[in-house]
Structures are given as C-alpha cells and as structure tokens.
Design goal:
heterodimer, A: about 525 residues, six-stranded mixed sheet, 20 strands, about 25% strand, globular, disordered N terminus, B: about 300 residues, mainly alpha, about 70% helix, disordered C terminus
C-alpha cells in the first residue's frame, strides 16, 4: 500500500466531531479525528468500549445513531462530503457503495425472509445486477466464505443457521453490491474461538480477492493483527496513534497502547497442589425429560486453586456450574464437598452449604437488581448469612468496597450508574460478602474490555491469595486461562476431554479437540492466520 | 523504554453518574417534563378527588333529600334542577363522585392485590400451581364479564361489599395475566437466580427482587383498570344492580333522568340534565387515560427524541 496517488484516496475524514445528547446536553463522543482509507486498504480501529470507535466507524458512512449528530469536520468520500449530504442522497451510497457488517448478525436479519433474498436485496434494488445474476453471485460469495452447502444455504431462514454462519452470510450481504468500503463492527466478538477463525479467514480472503477497502472495528488486538494493514488506536473519543500494523504491533509508541499490549502478559504464579475441596463425580444431567447435556462429567477442584473449564458454547460448561449450585439436579452421579455428598437440589441444602459456594455471572448487568443500590446488593448476603444489620452492615459493605478497589462513594449508586468493570466488581463483592470457599465464575470477563478484564483477573487472584478461595473459572478465552488457571478442564459436547495442571494441558501432545481449541486462539503475530491456514 | 505504567484505577472508569435527586425534586422534574395532555389529566383528576372528598361541604343539599318539585328546571334554588322525585341534581353529582370513585378505587385495589399476588406466585413457580391458576382464570375470562357480574350480583344481592368483591375478582383475571406475563421475564433474570441461590424465600424474592422491576406496567394498568371498573359500576348501576337508591351514583342518575331527553326540543337544559352524569364519567375516563398514556410512554422508553 505504498501507492499514494491522490485518486487512490477513497475516504478522507478530517477533524470529525460527533456529539450525543444526554441529560447534561450535547456531549462529545468523537473529538476531532482524522481518518484516511485508500482503495483496497484495511484499517483496524481498536480501543475500549466508549472510546468512540463504533461511532467513528459509522460516521465514516455519514451515519450517526438517533440522538447523535455530526458537529464538525468533513467526511470526503469520492469527492462528496457525507457530513453535508441529505439522507436521501446518502441512502444512494449506503447499501451500494458503502456497506456495514454489524456485531450481532442475529439481530440484523429479518427472521421472516430467506437469507438469499436479504443478501441480494440492495444489489437488485440499486440495479447493480439483475435478480438472477445477483443470486448466482451470492451463491459464489457463500462458497468463497466457506459456508456449507453454498448452493442451497440461501434458501434457509436466519434461525436455521448457526451464529458463525449468519455472520458470514452478513458479510456476503455486504459484499454483494461490490461496495468500495465495508465497515466491520466487531463481527467476530460474539463468536467462539473456533468459529471466529473461520469467519476471520473468510472475511480476509474475500476482502483481499475483491480489493475492497474496509474499516475493521474491534477491541481484540490479536484479531486486528490478522486483519489490518494499518491500525488506529482510539481512547476517550481521541486518536491515540496510528501506524502500519506490523510497526504498531512491534513497537507501539504511546503509553496507553503499551498498556493495551501488556495485558496479555498476566500470569498467575505456580502453586503447589492442594487437597480436593469439591469434586463432581460421574455426573449426567440434562434439561427437561429429553436431551442429556452432560455425560459422565468428573471434575476435581482443589482448595485455594483455580480450575479453568474451557470449551466452546454448548459444551456443557455452564450446565456443570448449575449442577454444582444445585439449580439443576443431576440424573446420575453426585457433587462432593469436603468428601461429603451435597444434596442434589438447592432447596435441600442448608443455608451454610449455600453460603460456601457462590457464583459470579457473565452479564453483571442482569446479575444485579436494577432497583437496588450497591449498598443493598452487597448488604443483603451479609444480613442473610451473617446477621449483620444497620451500622455494622454498612461498615462491612464499605470494607468490601475497598477490598474490590472501589470506595464508599459507590454505596448509594444504582447499577445503571456503574461501568461494566465496576458492575462486575460489585458482583464479586456480593459473592465475597457471603465469605465463600468456592466461587463459580461463569465467563466473568468475556463481556469486558481487555484492560478492565486484566484488572478483574488481578483482583480475583489477589482475593484468592488473601482468602484461599477456590475458583471454578468457566471461559472460552484461552488467554484468560493462561493468565489465571492452576488446572484446566477441557470440555466438548458435554464430556470432559481432559483435566490436568496448566503446564501439562498446554504443552503438546494434545487430544484432537484441545489441539483445535488452542490453535484457534489468535496470536498477536500478523502472520498467525496465514500460518494456521497453511497448516490446516 | 522502561517507563513503568500504573494500571488505571477502577474508580476512574467512566460511568454515567447523575446527581441523586430527592424524592420531591424527582417528582417536580417529572411533572415539569409532562406533556400538556398529562398535566390536564392530572388537574382534572385532582378536581374530581377534591369534589369527592368535600362533597358534604360543597353541596347545598343532602344526597337523598327531597328539596323541591320533581323535574325542576335549571337555575334558582336548584342550580342544575331536580330529578324525578325532587332531589337536587348538583348535590347528587358531587355525592355520586364520592360513591362511584370510592367503590371503583376499592374494587381496583382489591383486584390488584389478588391479581398481582397470584400472578407473581404463578410466574415464579411455573409448575402445577401456575397451571391450576392460569387455567382457572382462563375459565373465568371465557365468560363475558358484565353478564357474569350481573349473574353473581343477582345471586348475592347488591350490597356495596358484594359489588366491590365481585368486580374485583372478575377484574383480577386481567391483572393476573399481565402480572404473570411481565414477571415471567423478570423471574428468569440472573439476579433472581442469585437470590434463590442465596437461599432466599419466595416472599423475599417476590417483594424485593421481582415486584420493584414490574411496577411501571402495573401502575399504568392500574389507571386503565380503574377506568374499566368505573365504567362497569356505572353500567351495573344503570341496569339497576349496582349502587342502590337512595345513594347517588352517576350510572343510576343517567337512567333516572333519561326521560328528560325528550324535552330537549322545548328546553335545552332539560335535555342536558341526563348528559351531565354521563359527561362526568367520560371526562374522568379521558383524564385518567391521558395520564396513563404519558406514564406508559415514559416507562417503556418511547420518547420523542426531537
């Protein structure tokens, strides 16, 4: 991409400002950012949530969400200033020359129409190709995106294909009118690692082959390393730095970029083995009368250690946690706590048995009652398990808040007034309030940005050291596992593939499934995807 | 290159923090943002409540007092004339507000206590209790409620208490349906599961975890239900099984003075007399609906973002 001929310049955003309307009037979201995109070039936009990267990506199309406005700068696309065009004029560009791939494909398709009709709709409407030709072309795109049965998959409805497939169909939809620019807004964030690799390689292949320019928005550095020619880092609505991908990955200049990069280096110290605190013994379990989800699952959790349970979605990780908590009684096998079998059902367990096993959820948003303040949320288990009331309870809540690196100013806040990371910390404090021996962490960091993730992981590690808590850490993110786990359990289709300490699981030889899982995790190396594709 | 980086403190993470308003500030802020129709509705409701509360002070005559000749015209001693046996219409309108609104409010409240209570139990249980309650309520709902009420009132005889209880039970079916529907959505949230995992009892879970999160639709429904109950009472009274004479009631008043309609071509005000209680019913219904509409819009997040 060294050709700097002016005609090559497809998109030129200069000093773009976007504002959003809130209770306090118009607040800046993007504060004057420049962005250029040449024909055939892929730009990676990274940053934490709230950094303004999605807003900037949408502004590149001259689009802002309702309640926002472009308040300054110009967006030159092929000689037109999108910031000044009317909606009717912009609509001629959208879906034809600029297309958009959203994070949640499932929410972006109309469930009432067949996939192929939705794929070619704007292509046919804008008369790029006649209907029959566009459909043939769409089938070609499905094939190029390695969708199974490309000739017929388009006749299905959105609910009849998997999330990863739907995401690829959406990419085909974006490609169909042969646009000049595609905006990818976190297209793989909601997918499993194994699916993510397929979608990433499909997207990259087709973008390269057709020479389409793209803006790729993500918060995952390893993903951006595979996709982008150059990378722009955003924070608080400002550009932090921009550089060609390799240069940025090898030698970031700004301190903020370096913290982003350093997140992946977190490692738990090795600990000696310990006695088994909880064990799941040969458990079968299923929902309703019909399908069995768990098959003969056996997991051992030592005291004061972290056991990470990994696997893709549907592998039975969360179901295992439900069996341990007693929400889902097993049909065979048992859960042993300190050598004694726990009652299978939650309502048969004593209050003290309940107290010793606490749970932290993936979505901190839905794990806290939106109508209770932080003080009430953390205070309730203190009152319920330990009988603390009034002033005593308040003092203890504030101690717990300080334990999770917050302070008493949070006491009266409602969950809606907290950031994602703060919410998850409050959930941790609520679990700690019970003074538990085991904490089940169900994907607790997967909804968070990397820097916030690291903070949460550090906190969990510190608390483990101070209180000798055992964690059962359910995740699909191998980077998290490498950071925090002492032992690893690999699950696949409701069965345990292997369990062992971190070293032995992560070093070859692996069973086939573990191998697939590990090799699907992107590295920060820009050549990783090439290598992996060459291997398989 | 070896500069040390202090990790950012979680306290500084950006979050949406508002200054906490006191209750009175919050109410003032909400009211000032209300659209014109909602303010008008609130004003009318306030006016009705005052009339109902202070009926004995505001009315020149007693509720059942015969003060003049039957069908006296407007003006003079009887501001809005008299009815078929010579009772003052204006006084009876004020007392009617008292009776009708009072009974409607009591019946609606009772309907909500029954409907919300059972609805929450059904939503959290989702087992055989839910099945029994839901199917039983389907049976009650399958009978047209006005006819059902007429039938039950004929059996029980129409006392004020019978009226309140029968209307409340019949209306609680709708409240049950709504409560169950919204509570089912809340009952599957992680925070309800977290409360159950903690070992909390059913009562606490309902009261502290579920109920506060389903209040907005219930409050809106309360307004609408109140209107329907109010209309049902008026209809029953018009049919002669509602509030019994000599107590004043708007439904009964429409029926008793309906004859006057035919004299409208000689004296317009005579024709208007039966329309007055009907207008009272209509105006209150419209006013309550204005307020409910605003409230529903506000809580469902549908806003005019202009």
């Amino acid at each position: 991409m060294t050709n700097n001929a002016p005609s090559d310049l497809l998109l030129n955003m200069r000093n773009v400002e976007v504002e959003g309307f809130s209770d306090r009037g118009w607040q800046p979201i993007v504060k004057g950012v420049d962005l250029t995109l040449r024909r055939g070039e892929v730009l990676g936009l990274i940053g934490e949530s709230g950094a303004g990267k999605s807003t900037l990506g949408k502004a590149a199309m001259g689009y802002v969400q309702p309640g926002c406005r472009i308040s300054g700068g110009e967006i030159l696309f092929d000689g037109m200033d999108l910031a000044k065009l009317s909606d009717a004029e912009k609509r001629k560009i959208w879906g034809r020359r600029m297309t958009y791939v959203a994070q949640s494909a499932a929410a972006s398709f109309n469930p009432a129409h067949r996939l192929i009709e939705q794929t070619v709709r704007s292509t046919v409407r804008e008369s790029v190709m006649p209907g029959g030709e566009a459909r043939d072309d769409a089938r070609g795109l499905y094939k190029a995106l390695s969708l199974p049965d490309p000739d017929n998959i388009g006749d299905r409805f959105p609910h009849q294909v998997s999330g990863g497939q739907l995401q690829r169909v959406m990419t085909a939809m974006a490609m169909s009118p042969r646009p000049d620019v595609i905006i990818f807004d976190e297209p793989t964030t909601a997918l499993d690692v194994t699916t993510q690799v397929e979608v990433l390689s499909a997207i990259r292949k087709i973008v390269r082959e057709t020479g389409t320019a793209a803006i790729y928005i993500t918060h995952d550095l390893a993903v951006v390393a595979q996709m982008a020619d150059k990378i722009k880092v955003m924070r608080y609505g400002n550009e932090v730095e921009e550089a060609p991908a390799r240069e940025m990955l090898n030698a970031p200049k700004e301190a903020y970029t370096k913290t982003l990069w350093s997140v992946r280096s977190l490692r738990a110290p090795e600990k000696p083995s310990a006695e088994t605190l909880l064990s799941v013994e040969g458990v079968d379990a299923g929902y309703g009368g019909g399908t069995k989800v768990l098959h003969d699952v056996t997991i051992k959790l030592p005291r004061g250690r972290t056991v990470a349970v990994v696997g893709e979605s549907g592998s039975g990780k969360s179901t295992t946690a439900r069996v341990i908590t007693g929400l889902l009684p097993p049909s065979k096998g048992s859960v042993q706590f300190e050598g004694q079998a726990l009652p299978a059902r939650m309502d048969q367990r004593s209050r003290d048995q309940l107290r010793r096993i606490q749970m932290i959820y993936q979505m901190a948003d839905t794990a806290m009652n939106p109508r209770q303040t932080v003080g009430e949320i953390i205070g309730r288990p203190l009152e319920f398990y330990h009988g603390l009331r009034g002033r005593e309870q308040e003092t203890r809540v504030i101690e717990l808040l300080e334990d999770i690196e917050l302070d008493d100013t949070f006491y009266d806040r409602f969950p809606s007034e907290l950031s994602g990371g703060q919410k998850q910390r409050i959930c941790i404090a609520r679990a700690l309030a019970a003074d538990p021996e085991i904490v089940l962490c169900d994907e607790v960091t997967s909804a968070l940005d990397q820097i916030v993730q690291e903070g949460i992981l550090r906190l969990l590690m510190r608390l483990q050291e101070e209180r000798n808590i055992s964690y059962l850490f359910i995740t699909h993110d191998i980077a998290t596992v490498e950071a925090i786990a002492d032992e690893i359990v690999v699950m696949h289709q409701g069965k345990v593939v292997e369990q062992g300490d971190k070293q032995s699981i992560l070093t070859p030889p692996h069973p086939d499934y573990t191998q697939l899982l590990l090799s699907s995790v992107p590295d920060m190396d820009p050549d990783w995807l090439n290598r992996r594709l060459a291997e398989s | 290159m070896t500069e040390t980086l202090t990790p950012p403190s979680p306290k500084d993470e950006v979050a949406f923090v508002r200054r906490r308003l006191t209750r009175s500030e919050r109410i003032a802020k909400t009211l000032s943002g209300a659209p014109f129709t909602a303010k008008l509705g609130l004003l009318i409701i306030a006016f009705y409540l005052l009339a109902a509360l202070f009926a004995p002070l505001l009315s020149p005559f007693g509720e059942a007092e015969i003060v003049g000749p039957p069908y006296a015209p407007w003006g003079g001693e009887n501001l809005l004339g008299t009815d078929q046996i010579g009772r003052d219409i204006y006084s009876r309108l004020l007392y009617g507000a008292r009776n009708t609104i009072g009974i409607a409010l009591a019946a609606t409240l009772l309907a909500f206590v029954i409907g919300v209570g059972l609805g929450l139990v059904a939503a959290i249980d989702r087992g055989w209790i839910d099945q029994i309650l839901s199917r039983g309520i389907d049976v009650i709902m399958s009978i047209p409620s006005l006819i059902f009420a007429l039938m039950l009132l004929t059996i029980s005889g129409s006392s004020v208490w019978a009226l309140i209880i029968i209307i409340a039970v019949l209306d609680s079916t709708r409240v049950f349906r709504l409560t169950r529907a919204v509570a089912v959505g809340v009952a599957v949230m992680d925070y309800v599961e977290a409360a159950r995992l903690r070992g909390e009892g059913l009562g606490w879970t309902i009261r502290r975890e579920v109920l506060p999160n389903i209040m907005p639709p219930l409050v809106a429904e309360f307004g609408l239900r109140f209107c329907f109950v109010f209309l049902t009472i008026a209809a029953l009274s018009f049919l002669g099984v509602g509030i019994q004479p000599p107590n004043a009631d708007w439904g009964t008043m429409v029926r008793e003075t309906a004859n006057l309609l035919q004299f409208a071509r000689f004296d317009l005000t005579a024709g208007l007399t039966p329309m007055l209680p009907a207008a009272c019913i209509a105006l209150l219904t419209v006013a309550v609906n204005f307020v409910v509409d605003w409230f529903l819009n506000k809580t469902s997040g549908l806003r005019d973002d202009k």
